[in-house]
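Example record used in the benchmark description.
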Amino acid sequence: MVSHVGCGTWKQRLSDMLTIELPQSWTRCSVDGCQVLKEARFCTPESQKWESFPLSSSFNAKTNSEKIGKGDILLVPACCGSLCKYMMVVSGRASVFLLRATTRKLMKMTLLKKISGYAPAWDHAVGIICVHEAGGKVTDWEGSSIDFAADQVGRRTIFPSGGFLVTNHTLHNEILGLMSSNSSIN
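Model output (structure tokens):
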């Protein structure tokens, strides 16, 4: 998968790249067209339980699409790190990716400071570009753009309020509204 600002996100099968001939099989990526929240496919990190997300008070998560009932959403299993989940949204395999920001402790001399809402920038920068170029949207849980300049010193850390919301764009505002009404992000 490759992406460039203003040029879209493109993918090619790995097996096509292994041939000696110049491949001509690049396909433009687009987020899915889901417009109804209860029909959306969600993904979350394996390390974060559905119950830890604000949407859990509105929906139960099911992993079997045949057992989705009223008040349920489909949680698509996905392995590996957050970049794989970004790519699931980019390729249309998922409509929404939710990620809660973590908390870390920072040691400075004798001062122990707790930083909440922390994420390493390198885990998200590429995914955000790919999602935007495929027609999706990425914000923090308050709807603000991700600020890569927030870490004035090292430019390695980003501080999304609550976490990351990655969507097909169509569902973004509806999800933000539900999240803000169901939970205090702080």
